[in-house]
Write the structure tokens for this entry.
Amino acid sequence: MSAKNEAKPVKTTVHFTLQGKGGVGKSLISSFLAQYLKMIDGCEVKCVDTDPVNQTLVKYKALNAQYLNLRNDSSKIDEREFDKLMERLMTEDGAFVVDNGASSFVPMSNYMIENNVIPMLKDAGREVYIHSVITGGQALMDTL
């Protein structure tokens, strides 16, 4: 069997794009990341858009992103919906790109910290990455 035909071992990665500042390009970065992962790793890339205000990632039709509303009416994380996301992240193989909006940044970050999401994913054999956009100019201090 040649090297070209050898199956690559599936490496499951979870990429969260998080930033509290709106309009800095989180969805654009998520789309670049998804395209890069698909091209380089050749694995299935699963995109999830959790922005309750601007569902930009789902508009990139080629990415086949799914929208998941993680906020309930009180602007807190809907734990049932987040549990659905966690179940997918922990049981499905492939690369996940989770794009989060500025309006849900604080509730999602708090929920992830309080529920030990990153250690839980790592214990399940997932590699976890946090991507945050840092801009220059006037918004530099806001994004840092």
